[in-house]
Design a protein that fits this description.
Structural class: mainly alpha
Number of strands: 0
Number of helices: 2
Helix content: 40-55%
Shape: rod-shaped
Distance between the termini: 77 Å
C-alpha cells in the first residue's frame, strides 16, 4: 500500500487577550465661559479682523470655541 504523507500542521496563531474597556474618566469640571469673557475675546477678534462689521456672530462663536478649548 502506498503511504500518504501527512502535511505538518501549522501552529495556531496565539489569541489576543481581551482588553478591558474602561469607562472614560471625567475630566476636570468645566466651568462655562462667562458672557463677559466671550464678549472681550470676540471684540479682540473683531479688532484683529480690521473692525469689519457684519460678522459679529462668527467672532462670538469663535470666542466661545476658543474659551471652551482652553477649559478642556
Amino acid at each position: 500500500m502506498a503511504e500518504i504523507a501527512k502535511k505538518a500542521k501549522t501552529p495556531a496563531k496565539p489569541r489576543k487577550t481581551a482588553t478591558k474597556k474602561t469607562a472614560a474618566k471625567p475630566g476636570p469640571l468645566q466651568v462655562p465661559a462667562s458672557p463677559e469673557q466671550v464678549a472681550l475675546l470676540a471684540h479682540r477678534f473683531w479688532i484683529e479682523r480690521g473692525q469689519e462689521h457684519g460678522k459679529h456672530e462668527d467672532d462670538w462663536y469663535r470666542a466661545e470655541q476658543e474659551l471652551r478649548g482652553k477649559a478642556s
